[in-house]
Amino acid sequence: MNGLTLLGIALLVCLSGYFIYGRWLTKIWGIDPKAKTPAYLFEDGNDYVPSSKFTVFAHQFSSITGAGPVTGPIIAAMFGWVPVMLWLMVGGIFFGAVQDFTALYASVKNEGKSMGMLIERYIGRTGKRMFLLFSWLFTLLITAAFADIVAGTFNGYTANGSQVTPNAAAASISMLYIVVAILFGLFLKKYPLTEKPKLAVGIILILGMLTAGIAYPLYFDKTTWIYVVFAYMFMAAVMPMWLLMEPRDYLSSFLLLGMIASGVIGVVFTNPTIELAPFNGFEVNGKPLFPILFITIACGAVSGFHSLVSSGTSSKTVSNEKDMLFIGYGSMLIETILAVVSLIVVGAAATGGVMPKGTPFQIFSASVGNFLSMFGLSKHVATCVITMCVSALALTTLDSVGRIGRMCFQELFTGDTTDPAKMTSTQRFLTNKYFATVITLFFGYLLCLGGYMNVWPLFGAANQLCSALVLIALAVFLKVTGREGRMLYIPMCFMFCATVIALLMSIYGIVKKFMTTGGFSFLTDGLQLIMAIALIVLAMLIASQSVRKLFNSEAAEDTIDSDGQENA
Q1: Which 3-state string (H, E, C) describes 516-567?
Q2: Dist CA 342 CA 77 (whole Å)
Q3: pLDDT tens-digit readout, 136-190
Q4: What is the separation of C-alpha 128 from the centre of its chain, rounded to a whole number of angstroms?
Q5: Burial classification of residue 430, based on how many CB atoms lie within 10 Å of its CB (0-12 exposed, 13-18 middle, 19 or more buried)
Q6: How far is it, in rounded angstroms, from Cα 330 to Cα 336?
Q7: Cβ distance 564 to 489 under 8 Å?
Q8: Are residues 71 and 290 in contact, defined by beta-carbon separation less than 8 angstroms?
Q9: Nearest by Cα to 503 from 534, 458, 473
Q10: How far apart are CA 38 and CA 110, in angstroms?
Q11: Rounded-to-5 percentages of helix, strand, coil across the chain
């Protein structure tokens, strides 16, 4: 199999999924282009901010992409390229894109409420509290895993003390991105631009930042960058959307789309041969294909975190309901294409069916960097740019997860009102956005001390379990509001079974480490064990409540109309 054929299949399947399946969903559920969205109804200049179609898409795409579409397919390629490709196509179209779009759709139809608040409305208050606690614990795992990835990517020194210029340049560009994004946000606030001038300014700024960052790299060690990353997460969690996250995601989206385009163009012009075996068996290196394949490949197929972005931030900025398919369904399918490009890259880099050594990021960056050098770009510059792009994948997830984690913690303690004047003094303290952010980042930092590789298996299982719970909750929403929702039944059942098994395997692995080796750490391994047990218990409770509601023949379909409004 050659890379161009594989890419062509992926593009054809994804485009068909968008124009056939995606549009069918909007047709049977209903879209009202004339309806006032929550962004207008509750505009507050902070979270609820009416934004253009591409601006919201840029935020959604940048936030959900993360490191997953690069790391997942490359790691899972140990089973062979065929199972990876099949899961990306089936999962991307019928699982992930449906989940992301439905979560966005349900939230926009319900005043921009987050997933936890939607669960309260359609399933019950107890379900809401359990889901918010689950989601908050899940955001801690994302924070730990991705903060360690970013800090490691920015680390300007090797183990022997020599400098790593591409890493330092990527770090410099990333820091410029933060500063320039704030200035860009302030400029757009005072001088709003239409899309074409805004695009032109954005491209000029990107070129300037790339040039300056490569010329003036920042050399700091990993520990320093961990502190910087957490400081940035705090800023992103408390600052208005228009001031930092939206302009940064807008600028980052061009970089990420450019990286995808580079990979696609490279595949088109080189048409590499896939050297990996099509299938290596149902068990590789002691790891069974089921459920490992389906939790290793999250982003690109289906990821629970995406639903938190769709309902937590993106839904509050959508200006028109007709934009939701492009934002929710479209951004997921582009991510699926990136995952396919990653699979082709590792397949082309393999020798004799064996994957090259190195981290998934290193394999991807080196290969795409070689593609760019074919077009006259120096290998040094190409490597710096791609390293920056890859780090941007994780950094744009971190700024969203800090904000979402803060919001989950706040909503956990809001009770019956969100009005501070009507809250108790304890509630006001716990729902204070600064306190909620600090407590979220503190526990995320503790988990980060265990390192990315220790956290990733637990993160992967929790991420996919979150997807299963969200799919069940969305199926309840569709049923209660009189919409067809049976297309969610197979995805939710499959993901729940796969992820519960994977989470039990993680718990078994941690317990075995405690019983048989002396390397058990009570701070990192112990905290992971507590979280794993808490996640699986919460998941069982949430699922049982949701399933009872879903299959209750007396579901109150006549008490809530199709727009989520209660009837008298």
Answers
A1: HCCCCCCCCHHHHHHHHHHHHHHHHHHHHHHHHHHCCCCCCCCCECCCCCEC
A2: 10
A3: 998 998 898 889 888 888 899 888 889 988 889 989 999 998 999 999 999 999 9
A4: 21
A5: middle
A6: 10
A7: no
A8: no
A9: 458
A10: 8
A11: 75, 0, 25
- Local structure of residue 33 (DSSP, 8 states): T
pLDDT tens across 494-514, in order?
Answer: 999 999 998 888 888 888 877
CATH class for the domain made up of 3-550: mainly alpha
CA atoms within 13 A on the CB side of 532: 27
Side chain identity at 73, as an amino acid letter?
Answer: P
Closest of 366, 360, 323 to residue 343, by C-alpha: 360
The residues spanned by each domain of the chain are: 3-550
Joined together, the tokens standing for residue 556 give 């109150």
| Residues paired with residue 51 on neighbouring β-strands, in sequence order | 318
Rg (CA), the chain: 22
| C-alpha–C-alpha distance, residues 548 and 281, integer Å | 38
Cβ contacts of 192 within 8 Å, gap of 6 or more: none
Residue 428 tokens read as 């006001």
Counting residues of the chain whose pLDDT is more than 70, the rounded percentage is: 95
Residue 195: how many CB atoms within 10 A of its CB?
11
